Amino acid sequence: MVQNYASGVSEAQIRLFKGFGYLVLPQFFTPEEMQVLSREVEQTMALQYVHKPFDGSKRHWTMMLDEETPFHAGLLEDPRFLTLARQLYGDDVLGVGIDANRYVGNTGWHPDTASLLQYGIKFAFYLQPVGPDSGALRVIPGSHRFDLNDPFWGPAVRALPLEEVPATALSAQPGDVIGFDLRTWHASYGGGIDRRMGTVVYYNNPKTPEEVEYVRRQGEGNVNAAINSFEPQRRFLYSRSWLTNPQKSPWRRAWIERLATVGYFDAPNVVEGGWPLAEQRV
Ligand SMILES: O=C(O)CCC(=O)C(=O)O
């Protein structure tokens, strides 16, 4: 049995997310969808890491936005994700990414942004069961509101062994989805080798010049955090194919226009072949 998320979630769940920075969406994907997700991950990872097959020593990561993985590629526009992202961040929320991961061991405490002014939601789903001591995502409730420049907060978290930081572990079965604010501090403990997790990410549409500046910088930050660290075959975040929007998705068109305006695509290796695309250059 799956639950129907296409029309969004209740006010109580929205309040939980806004107050504590996360929510859990049980039974989101059907077993058949989980099989498709697993197959697409298997095939793409084999291609992206043909030069260094997974040996359990280092995380593998890849974007999943393209037509070779059509089920993943449609997730940003899937009403089950998009309706909720719009409920939380407004109708102009920006779809920015879909990825797949093969994690190795623990993940230390961190938020997914460099500033409280750059935020949005990351939806995460696991291809195998995860529990409190077997790789479940741990979140510090309410930490999306903590000042990143506070001299006590970050050091206090990092001074403790990962598993002793007071937190909530979000156990999940295949098919469940967890959503967390990008500012929420999260980690995982006790996960084995090859913990497979996919994500779907939306950014709040920046309103002030400062917010715009942080989204612009995030393009380069994402290249460093992903392409440069994990070294998949594909040396860019967004393919020309995704940017040319072959399905003529009105959502994707609006996201690309806005992200281009704020300069998110400008840094090297954000876009295949550089931005603007060759045919748009004068
Ligand atoms: O599942 C994990 O080990 C960490 C996930 C994470 O840090 C993320 O998705 O940002």
What does this structure look like?
The mean pLDDT is 96. The protein has a 6-stranded antiparallel β-sheet with strand order 1-8-5-10-3-2, with helices on both faces. It has a 4-stranded antiparallel β-sheet with strand order 4-9-6-7, with no helix packed on it. It has 282 residues and is α+β, with helices and mostly antiparallel strands. It has one domain (11-280): q2cbj1_9rhob like domain (Jelly Rolls, Sandwich). The protein is 32% helix and 20% strand. The structure holds 2-oxoglutaric acid (AKG). 2-oxoglutaric acid binds at residues 103, 107, 112, 122, 124, 137, 186, 188, 191, 197, 199.
Question: How would you sum up this structure in a few lines?
Answer:
This protein has 282 residues and is α+β, with helices and mostly antiparallel strands. It has 8 helices and 10 strands. The protein has a single domain (11-280), classed as q2cbj1_9rhob like domain (Jelly Rolls, Sandwich).
> What count of structural domains?
1
Question: Based on helices, strands and strand pairing, what is the structural class?
Answer: alpha+beta
The name of the CATH topology is Jelly Rolls
What CATH architecture do you see?
Sandwich
Q: Nearest-angstrom radius of gyration?
A: 18 Å
Strand content: 15-25%
Query: What spatial form do the alpha-carbon principal axes imply?
Result: globular
Number of strands: 10
Main-sheet strand order equals: 1-8-5-10-3-2
How would you spell out the order of helices and strands? HEHEHHEEEEHEEEEHHH
